[in-house]
Amino acid sequence: MIFLLSSIGGVMLLTAIELRWPASTEPSTRLVNAKVWALYAAVTYALVPIVGSLATRGVNWLGGGVFDLASWPIVLGVLAFAFAMDFGEFLFHRAQHAIPFLWRMHSLHHSDPNMNATTAARHFWADPLIKAVTVWPAVGLLFKPTPLILVIYASLSLYHYFAHANLRVNFGRLSWVLNAPAYHRLHHSADPQDYGTNFAGLFPIFDLIFGSYRRPTRFVQTGLAERPRGLLDAIVWPAKAR
Description:
mainly alpha, 13 helices
């Protein structure tokens, strides 16, 4: 409940800042995003922590988990787990753009014509469940996280709302260190020349290593030609998307 309230509070604050200093004044789809978020939140906050944690713990119980993070200093343990999870998210994100049936789900996220903080929750409802049974147990093969580390990592995911914000925030030459609105906006670009760039969720170093890094030097428009008209479209999106 605290995490959900923090998400709502963070989005409300970012939305207020966006409305005062918008990077783009294109029409917003925040109302559609809010409806999608309600369904997404029900899955994410009710099922994913349970499914993901059980999958990770299950892998650990079966003998997975080369490194037991309980014996590590908490800061080092959090960083190691966060990097491993973000690398898993990065690979999954690449797969979403390469595998047609995953793209049909993921394209709902990219269809927003004016990327903003609420876009961070504009995902097809099955996406988090797929990650819960792929990324989470894969990381469980490497690490045994403590409950505290899992809680801290969940809190770090709130940063994604900022990374999607409709703000002109650019880390410039340091854009390879941490994701930012300008960096991630390029990933959502409607311009084909920007396709296949900046997949990272938190740490762009993975884009740099795998050749998909592009430093943001210009402001771009976002979105796809096909968009959901409402919640029902979003619920059945893969059946409609091309």
